[in-house]
Each structure stands twice: as structure tokens, then as C-alpha cells.
Amino acid sequence: MHGTVGQSATAQRERPRRPGLRLLIESHLLFALFLVALLAALSIPVYGISASREGAAILVTLQQGHATQVPPETPVRIAAGAWSIEAPARTFQSDFVPDGDRAAVARFYAERDAIVALASAPGATVTVAGAAAPLAPAHRRLMDLPHNFWLLSLQAVVIGLLGAWVRTSAVPGDLRARMFGLSCAGVAMAGLSGAVFDTRDLTAPGDMLRAMMTLNVLGSNVSAVALLALFLYTPRTLAPRWIGPVLVAAGAVAGVLQGLAVLPLESFYALLVLPTLGLPLLLLVQYRRAAGDAGSRATLRWIGATTFAGGAFVTIGMAAPVLLGVPSLGSDGSTIVPLLMAYGGIAFGIAGRRLFVLDAWSYRLALGAGATLALLVADALLVNLLALAKPVALALALLAVGYLYVPLRGALWSRINRSQALTGPELFRMAGEVAFAPDTAQRRAAWRTLLDRLYQPLEIGSAPMPVPVPQLLDGGEALALPAAAGESALLLRHAGNGAKLFTPADLATSRELVALLEGAEEARAAYARGATEERRRIARDLHDDVSGLLLTGLHREDLAHVRGDVQQALGEIRAMVSSLAGHAQPLGLVLADCRYEASGRLAAAGITLDWPPDLAEDAEDRIVEYARHKALVSALREVVTNAIRHSGASRVTVSATIEGDRLSLLVRDDGRGLVAETRREVSGGNGLGNLAQRLAEIGGACTIEPSPQGFAVRLDLPLAAA
């Protein structure tokens, strides 16, 4: 037996949940209840007689369109033949609720039955303040239903569906969803029964009115108490699980007793006031208990704002007409807007919806409702305390709110939204410090400092999973960032020191920041590569040119040759220093420096230089990058060195020509021509062979040309990159 029970329980736990089917069933049930309410409303005859409150009086409209204002206790007489019944004019209002002891309430419903019977009799009449009209009840059509019926029915259906959606989509055993679902069901019950109760114009059967009244107070009690019980468990648990259901059951029992007049009607209003006062207190306690939980606090802020705004709009609808002297807006159906606002906000919260996008709007909503309430309070004080006329009081109230409340609201909004967020210049400066910190450890520290200043998270730790791009996690409670600045992927939790969630705006900022750092890192790496290449170039030039010349000079015995080597080494050093100051130089300036250096060296060796400045002016202004003009200078220097060492010449002639983007230099001397040493250098030594290799690296060439006398070499090199 035990095994069977255990297997059955296991099977029940493992039975797949079908929230869609449950929601479909409950929505159809709700629609069926609406149809029942609609049929009940259509069953009430149309008498064409209505009564409504007009200030302190009752406005009674008769069938012929005649209307008269009478005191509330003025008797209205319904008669048919020898039978008649009288009741105060106030009891014929469509939303009138009987009060008093049980016997008085029973008499009211008995009177309604008697009025229905008399009004349906042939020749029935209604008389009020001397004005009489015949009664001819007719079947009610859809177009005869008052707008209040449709508003209350819509309110009941929409909020009922909202509760069904939350309850069916929640995990099994979620007490929060159950409490919210019960509260919404109570609103649906109160709305549909209130819609039928308010449909009558003259009267309706007493039993129907008693049933609708009982369902109305029952639903109102359940909705109010369940809503209060909800916040015993949202977001923190403040009471044992059994407390909530017991409170709801007690409210339901009280509602039945109030509807049957066992409990006085005053207890109904008292029971509604208690949740109204207790809800802000519970929200405050929950807010304090949720310290450090940004998601829960954001939800509570939104719930508190929507509930406060909903209550404010109900107050406005009831108080504004009285204070401002305008037609009443406070019918039962008009509560659809504030109720949808309150229940919609709560539904988003307990259904697990993250409200980081709506968080700022919660403050705006509460502050806006506060401004309207402040206007009404100021107007009421001016009217009642100073006995000012209503237009004057309203004008003064507007001025007071404009000059006092609005600046105060702005200061409060600034305080709410104050943050230590980085400005644009600070953000770029800190991002630059991260990207160009001297070493990896400093980059990591600067990166964490930047994130702490930007988001003020409670936690910054390593992400437990790969993070390809920035992303929001846990509905905004955490922000995951990819590896950057030498740091592994990071996980930031609870922005604003735990006071808020990460928002889509924060996500967009993090994406831009990561992209900025990636670009800065690439620039830094490119700079490092360029610096490394520059160091290698300088090292090669020092090794190949300067050190080779100095080493050669150390082994020479001829002082003149030593001086020439030193002078040439100094020229190489000047060229390298010049390249550090600015890579590109005009071609004319490079050739002029080469001409000056060659002239000095050849003159010291007793050789004449014939090198006319034969380039066109526009050609002399051509800009040549360092790699090319360095190759040109080194090549000419090597050729001059060979002429001094090996040619035995008395004259060296140089001519330069430009064809397109290539420069050609022909160097001739009148010496003894190509000797054995020169052959070895051309074939692969450190002389012309090394020169030919250097020119080949930049796309140039070194060619030995035939000459009837002496030695001739042509240097060909590009002036621009291919």
C-alpha cells in the first residue's frame, strides 16, 4: 500500500506541467463568469428612472426626461392600484449600499422585491416631490448597459487574466504567485458582481442585489488581504507559509458575514483600510531586508511607485471633483486605470521580470503622482482653512506647487540619480591610462579601477565561463566583460554599490569601452612593433656602418685614412640622428648633404668632385622616406670610399636623373679602373657587395658600367614605396 502511494506521489511530481493549458482553461472560466454577469445584468428591466448624487442633493430623472433635485431623504413613491411603497431618494442610486444592522439591511432587500413587483404591475407610477411618471419596464439590451458595467467587467477580466498568467507560469508551490492570483481573483469577483450591482436604474430583485453585494465585499476582502499577504513573502519571507492562507481565509469569511449583514458595513471599510496602511509598512520592511539585493530593491521600488500612483489616482478621482467643483470622475469603473497600474507593476515583479529599465520611471511616476496630490492638498487647505473661493484657491495652489514642490522634486530627483559616474573626458583619460600603462600588472590594476569608478559594483571577480562579448546576466544583477588589458574575463555584480541593476545603457557603454581598449591595445602593439623595428634598424646601421668604419680605422696605419673613416662614421651618426628627428626629407636636401660630404672627403684625399645640381626644382622637392634616403647616402658614401681607397683618380663626376618614381645616380672617376680588391668587394665583401644587397632590399640596384677610363657605377633606387 505504501509503495503504491509513493509511486503515485512520484508520478504526480514527475507529471509534466502544462501552464499553457491551465491558462487556457482559467481564461475560458473567467470568460464564462463574465457571460453569467452579462446575462444577470440583462435580466434587470429598464425602468427609465435614475437617481444620482448632485452635491448634497439627489438628482432624480423621470421617464419623460423631467429631472428634479431633492434632499436625500425625500420619499420616492411607487404605486400600482391600491398598493404603494415609499423609500428615500438616496436608496435609488445605482451604487447605493445598504447599511445598519441586520434587520435594516434585510428590510432594504425586501423593499427592492416589493418595488420590483409594484413597478411591473399594470398602471404603475412613480412620484417624487409632486412630479409623477408612469412605469413601463422593458427588457434590457446591450446598448442599455451603462458604461460602468463595461469598465468594471473589463477591469475584472484583465486583472483576472493577469493573475491567472502569473499563477500558471510560476513554479509549483510558489506562495507569492498563489497570493497574487488570489488577489486578482478577488478583484475579478468584486468587479463582475459590482458591474451587475450597479446596472440597475430604479431597482433590481433583492435576492440578486444581496448576492452581488456579498460577492462584491467577499472579492474586495480577498483581493486586499491577499495583496497584503503577498508582501509577507516578496521578496523576503517575513512570516511562516501558513500565515498568508489563514489571513486570506479570514478575509473571505469576514466578507461573507459582511454581505449577510452579520458584521456591520463599517467593518468592511476597516478591513480595507488595514491593508492600505499595512502595505507601505511591509514594503519598507522588505526594502530594508533586501539590502544588497539590487534586483529585489528595483522590483520593490517599481511596485511601491505603481501602488502609490494607483492609490493617488483613486484619491484624485474621488477628491478632485469635490475640491475643484467639476463633475465626478470617481465611479467604480474609473478605478480600472489605477488598479491595472498597481497590479500590472506587481505582476512584473513577482513573475521574475527584471525592472532595471523601468527603475528610473518608478521615481518619475511617484513624483508625478505626488505633485498632483500636493496640488489637491494645497487647494483643500486654502478652501477650508482660509475660506477662499475655489478659483482663487486653485490658482494659489498652482503657484505654490510650481514654486515650491517642483524645485523640491527636481532636487529630490537629482539626489536619487546622483552618482559618481565618469564624464566623457575622464573615461577617455582612464581608458588611455589602462591601455598605455607600463606593464601588465599596472594595466590590470588600472582596468579594475576604471570599472569600479564607472559602475561602482559590490563585487569584481573572474568570470567562471568564457565571455566573448559584454553581456548582462541574471536580469541585470551582473555584467560579464571579456578579457581585456591583460586581465581575464571579469564578472561585476550589483552596480551602484548594490543600489541598482546594470542597465542596457551600461551594457552599451561597456561594449564601447572594450572596443576602445582593443583599439588602444592594437595601437600600443603597433607602436611597440614600430619601436622594436626602429631599434633593430638603428642597431643594424650602427653595426654595419659606424662600427665597421671605426673598426677599420683602428687597424689603419695611415692617419689620413683613419680620419676619413672617423669622418664617415660621424656622417653615419648624423644621418641616424636626423632620421630620429624626422624620417622623410626633400630629395634636394638629401642630395645637397651628400654633395657636401663627398666634396669634403674627396678634397681631403686630393680629388676634385664634379657634381652639378642638375635636377629640376620640382624634382628636388620630392619627399623621400628615411629608408630610401639612408640607402642613397650609404651607397654614395661607399662609392666615394672606394674611389678614395682604390681608384687613384684625380676627379669624380656624379650625375643624377629621375624617371618616374626612380632616381638614378651615375658615379665616374678617371682612375685606374676595376682592380682585384674591388672585384672581391663587388662579389660579396663589405663594400659594394653589401651596398648592392641594401639597395635590393628597397627595390633598387647597384650596377658596374663599362667605362673607357677609370671606374663607373650606377645606383638605381625607388623614391616611393611600390
Q: Assign the structural class, choosing from mainly alpha, mainly beta, alpha/beta, alpha+beta, or little secondary structure.
A: alpha+beta
CATH topology of the largest domain: Rhopdopsin 7-helix transmembrane proteins
Overall tally of structural domains: 4
How far do the termini sit from each other? 93 Å
CATH hierarchy, class of the largest domain: Mainly Alpha
| Average pLDDT level | 76
Label the overall shape.
rod-shaped
Treating each run of at least 4 consecutive H or I residues as one helix, how many helices? Answer: 22
Report Rg. 48 Å
Largest beta-sheet characterization: 5 strands, mixed
Strand content: 5-15%
Q: Fraction of residues in helices? A: 55-70%
The quaternary organization reads as single chain
Quick recap:
By secondary structure, this protein is α+β, with helices and mostly antiparallel strands.
Q: Mind sketching the topology for me?
A:
Layout: H1 2-14, H2 19-42, E1 50-54, E2 57-61, E3 67-70, E4 75-80, E5 83-88, H3 102-119, E6 125-128, E7 131-134, H4 147-169, H5 175-197, H6 206-230, H7 243-259, H8 265-289, H9 294-324, H10 336-350, H11 359-385, H12 390-417, H13 424-435, H14 440-455, E8 459-462, E9 471-473, E10 478-481, E11 490-493, H15 495-498, H16 504-554, H17 559-581, E12 585-586, H18 587-604, E13 608-610, H19 617-620, E14 623-624, H20 626-647, E15 651-659, E16 662-669, H21 676-684, H22 688-697, E17 701-705, E18 711-718
Parallel strand pairs: 13-15
Antiparallel strand pairs: 1-2, 2-3, 4-5, 4-6, 6-7, 8-11, 9-10, 10-11, 12-14, 15-16, 16-18, 17-18
Helix pairs in contact: 2-4, 2-5, 3-6, 4-5, 4-10, 5-6, 5-10, 6-7, 6-8, 7-8, 8-9, 9-10, 9-11, 11-12, 13-14, 13-16, 16-17, 17-20, 18-20, 20-22, 21-22
